[in-house]
From TrEMBL:
Enzyme class name: transferase
GO MF entries: ATP binding; dTMP kinase activity; nucleoside diphosphate kinase activity; UMP kinase activity
Lineage: Eukaryota, Metazoa, Chordata, Craniata, Vertebrata
Gene: CMPK2
Protein name (record): UMP-CMP kinase 2, mitochondrial
Domain of life the protein comes from: Eukaryota
Length: 253
């Protein structure tokens, strides 16, 4: 498995993170004989029109580490705005997620990237009818890949202007991306309070504060669209109010 971006060849991270739909399709096609579910994802992806366009309603994405409050706040914002709530990976492929989570990096990341392109077609359609709220999108795919494929502290991340922080040219862009952040202690409290089964990555997040910092820093380095950071440590009601105001200011709702 590819590990360190700094120790490996310069293109190693690029290899882990497919940067456009043709690369995603190629990667799924290459493993479809061994993994039938890759063929199933590919079938869905190939039915999605290329280069999706947003409708006239705003599209707002929520990003952040696990248990920062995305599910909680997206549900409230959806209700308040009469919005459509979507998530990555989209429901139509999420039953295969555990299979891909066990695969080597390039295949696993191709699954999540494919999810974003499929999600884009859902966003395109929904945003012609109502505002769209999205729980994780490309920034999560990129940030988790970058953090997994590098080691140590944030100095080992690719430099600020690296192409890994850029939005894929052929992927529908949201109007606003809000990055929810809380202190590690508050996150741990929320995780414990929730008590759900954790993925391997979530367990690693708990054990490895450097990994957590690499993810957050990668989110912060994403550009066009960049993430707007929101302190999500106040109460649910306060976070909701802050977020709603940001959306109203930015999207003229
Ligand atoms: N502002 C808040 N103050 C206190 N607790 C909160 C707040 N927001 C969410 N929580 C609680 O923290 C836990 C995690 O929240 P939530 O499931 O919304 O996070 P998440 O970011 O969607 O997590 P994941 O990415 O793992 O799905 C839940 O138990 C939720 O009730
Ligand atoms: C969308 C997406 C998710 N992941 C990983 C990162 C975390 O371990 C979990 C969180 O998923 P949840 O459904 O929000 O609990 O999935 C990823 O690695 N890449 C992605 O694109």
């Amino acid at each position: 498995m590819l590990r360190s971006c700094t120790a490996g060849p310069p293109g190693s991270l690029r290899l882990a993170l497919p940067a456009a739909a043709p690369a995603v399709r190629r990667r799924l096609r290459e493993c479809a004989a061994r993994i039938p579910e890759a063929g199933a994802v590919l079938d869905i992806l190939e039915k999605c029109p290329e280069r999706q366009k947003k409708g006239e309603f705003p599209v707002v994405v929520f990003e952040g580490l696990d248990a920062t409050g995305k599910t909680t706040v997206t549900q409230s914002v959806k209700d308040a705005l009469g919005a459509v709530l979507l998530r990555s990976p989209p429901a139509c492929i999420s039953q295969w997620r555990t299979i891909f989570d066990e695969e080597p990096t390039p295949i696993r990341r191709a699954f999540y990237a494919a999810g974003n392109y499929i999600l884009a077609s859902e966003i395109a359609k929904a945003s012609t009818q109502a505002p769209v709220i999205v729980d994780r999108y490309w920034h999560s795919t990129a940030a988790y890949t970058i953090a997994t494929e590098t080691d140590g502290n944030i100095q080992n991340l690719p430099p600020d202007d690296d192409a890994v922080y850029k939005w894929p040219e052929d992927l529908l862009k949201p109007d606003l991306v809000l990055l929810l952040t809380v202190s590690p202690e508050e996150r741990t409290r929320r995780l414990e309070g929730r008590g759900l089964e954790r993925t391997k990555e979530e367990a690693e997040l708990e054990a490895n504060s450097l990994f957590r910092r690499r993810i957050e820093e990668s989110y912060r380095r994403m550009v066009n669209p960049a993430c707007q950071e929101v302190d999500a440590s106040p109460s649910k009601e306060e976070v909701f109010k802050t977020v709603l105001q940001l959306i109203k200011n930015h999207c003229a709702l």
